[in-house]
Design a protein that fits this description.
Elements lengths: L10 H12 L5 E3 H10 L4 H14 L11 H4 L1 E3 L1 H14 L18 H51 L2 H26 L5 H20 L3 H18 L2
Antiparallel strand pairs: 1-2
Helix pairs in contact: 5-9, 6-7, 6-8, 6-9
Amino acid sequence: TTPSSQPTHSLINEGLVCRKLLSMKDVALSWNEFKDVCQQIGVNETEAHDIAVHLHNKGTLLFFHTSSDAQLRNTVFLPNATHIAVNILKQLNGNPTANAQPSAASPPLNPAHLVKEVENLDSIYNRISGESQSHAKRVVTSLVGGMVVQSVLLARMVWIDFSWDIIEPLTFFIMSGYMILGGIYFLRVNKDFSFETFFNRSKEKRFAKLAHKYGYDEQRHRLLQEQLSLLKNTQSR
């Protein structure tokens, strides 16, 4: 270990600060709030800064003290939120398999970029969701329309072309066919057939197809939304 990497603060005080932070339910503190926590256990501002930087380098918390963004520079992400922020950093860097250990050289999160990317993903999601909804409605409408046409044809054959005695066996085989199709549907999706389940399945399949077409990543979208919510909560403190 090089001399410059040696901590310049008391390791005992660092341990006390860590214990205090781990007992807190907050996900982030402003710098002034962090200083107050440290002062409660007898740590002055200079040592508190050294402890925060050292814990950042160790990956215990995140403290982007060199960031050009004032809000991010004056925010300390506590251990409860570190795993979320680290995942965001990996996603924004396009390296989901990178080491999750943050360092002082880690690029700072850009709130403006984060908001823009979330808004872009929201737009893509709304478009895909809307198209999927419309597709599912068309599919179910076609199914119901087919059933209406079938009923009209059966009625014509009963009262105009033929008689009930001739058509009755036909209706039996039609109903048997529906039951067989319902059984096949259950074996495929593990759910009884209903218009609701058929609608939802059609929508989900269409959504997955469109997501692949537009390059939409639902997991990344949720991850970025979590981080944006975290930053907003920090701003409102």
